[in-house]
Fold this sequence. Notes:
The protein has a single domain, classed as Sandwich (Hypothetical Protein Aq_1857, Chain: A), CATH 2.60.300. The chain contains two helices and seven strands, in the order βαββββαββ. The chain has helices at residues 7-17, 71-74, and strands at residues 3-5, 24-31, 41-46, 53-59, 62-67, 79-84, 89-94. Strand 6 (79-84) and strand 7 form a beta hairpin. The longest helix has 11 residues, at 7-17. The radius of gyration is 12 Å and the shape is globular. The termini are close together. InterPro entries: HesB-like_dom_sf, PdhI-like.
Amino acid sequence: MKIEITDTAKKWFEDEVGVSNGTFVRFFGKYGGTSPIQQGFSLGIELVEPRNPLGSTEKEGVTYFVEDGDEWYFSGHDLKVDYDELKDEPIYEYL
C-alpha cells in the first residue's frame, strides 16, 4: 500500500495535530461517518508507533502509516492525503 502526504497536508498535521520529527501518525478505519470506499465508516488518525505496518511513508521525520489490521478498510486502495484550504482540513483520496 502506498501513502502520499502533500506538503500542505504535512503543514496541517504540524499546525493542528502537533506532529514533529520522530512522530508517528496512524490512519485507520473507524465506525461512523462517511467514506467513498466503506459505507458507515470513516478515516481516523492517532499518534502511535507502528506495530505491523501495511504501508508507510516518511516526510521530514514524521512517519505516516496504516497497520495491516486495517487492510479491510482500504480494500486495495492507496491513500493520498492533501489539504483543503477553504475547509481548513485534510482531504483523503483513495487511489
